[in-house]
Amino acid sequence: MHGCLHEFTSSILTLQPRLVGPLCCKAFLRIDESCWPKIFPVNLAFPHSLKNYCVVLQGLPQALPPSYTTNFDVVPNLMKGGEDKD
């Protein structure tokens, strides 16, 4: 998109995702995440901040972080308040 290089550069240099407008955010969201380390080699955390900003700006639903479950069967005696004898 015309002007996106300038917006991305300004945003990266100042660490301010809000400098990227809606059209450039739309273009950014189309970039596969596996390409981010090649595009943003200096600050690998910035693309995630930019993505979060762009998702909100575009009004898209945010992805939920992966859920983690605990397998309580691994330590059944500890869960009952007893000692694990194994």
From TrEMBL:
Keyword Signal: yes
Regions that span the bilayer: none
Domain Prolamin-like stretches: 2-55
Pfam families for this protein: Prolamin_like
InterPro entries assigned: Prolamin-like
Record's GO cellular component terms: extracellular region; vesicle
GO BP, sorted A to Z: double fertilization forming a zygote and endosperm; regulation of double fertilization forming a zygote and endosperm; regulation of protein localization to cell surface
Entry keyword set: Signal
PANTHER family, sorted: EGG CELL-SECRETED PROTEIN 1.4, PROLAMIN-LIKE PROTEIN (DUF1278)
Name of the featured protein: Prolamin-like domain-containing protein
Lineage: Eukaryota, Viridiplantae, Streptophyta, Embryophyta, Tracheophyta
